Amino acid sequence: MVARFVIAVFATLLVVATTSRDDVAMLQQSRKDIEPSGLQTTQADSLEDMALGPLMLKVKEECLSSTQQCLPALIEARHRVWPYVQAELGKEIKPYEPSSFSADFASAWLKDEVCHGKTFFLLHVWKAVGWGGIENLQQLMGGNVERHNLGGDLHPYDCQNVSHPSTFTFVRDPLTRFISGYAQLEQLREQYYHQDAIDHRKNFPPNPVLNLLTGKPGSVERAMQFLDRFFVDGVLHDGHVRPQSEYFVKPYGNKCLLAVDFVGKMENVVGDWKRFLDSQQCHVTTQFNLTAGRHNTSSDTKHALAEVAGIVGAASFVELQAGAQQSMERALLFQKVYLRALCWLYLVDYVMFRYDLPRGCNHPDMLHIAQLSNISVSDS
Hints:
By secondary structure, the protein is α/β, with parallel strands linked by helices. The protein is about 45% helix and about 5% strand. The protein has a five-stranded mixed beta sheet with strand order 3-1-2-4-5, with helices on one face. The protein is globular and about 60 Å long. The two termini are about 15 Å apart.
């Protein structure tokens, strides 16, 4: 059943793009090759007056360019899809708005013999390569990367007065990332309260909302409780489930012009990592290390956490996390209203990063956006 659901998630291609060159593929081109959407909009055009389809394309244009209009466009898009979210859930909920997110960056200066003395900035999107990308960047650099926060210690000098800067990131299928993000939030909660997890208590306090959920860990009931709260406040705007488009919002007043040059996909991280390095004319032959950056937990702690969670049959920490993940998958499989509501809320991400829509997301207005964007929705 879970396998059928996962297959369905990747069944069809939703992409954006009415561009002047048929929407140049993001993964094979640097940002300078990605052309505007060809919507014939001007500075005078009001976001409020734009139809939903063109508005989605406008959001993509502004956010991939990291302009100050990214956040206003995201907010307008949220308000425009919210009536659909409410209709799916069958209740009135005040829309919570996208907000500025102090994104983390890792910067690395690469030697001339590696990549011509260039400086790379990796935008860390949670639950999408993230730590693995940082550790691979360190291996490429031959030392420790510098960590920055766009809303704090990353100043104009850091991102402008450097040698040949280039910014890249990796994203992930919105629905599978949401499911994985929920599973990790449950995992972090169990780690925090485990007696041996002192470091996690200090560094990774759990999302307090999870302590309010009454369902048993690993149950569909608990996953549905999480979903109900997610449509109220994004579970306190947690970065594990926050739409990836919001990571591209530049904090107000920040003068670091870190427009993202390359957006790769977690699902093709080995190939996309190579494409990015090739686009920068780097002299690198080693592949992306898929084992780097994984969150490690001792064997004893893994088994203890599985027992604490009370998930039937969970014999390891991996299975504990899988139990939470599978419960969310079942909730979305049997409660299609949640699935369709998520598709509306994450529609910007599907459009912006060219991901397939799940089969169940076939509302007529969503199909209209697909037709506008010259894409199709799977019937399998």
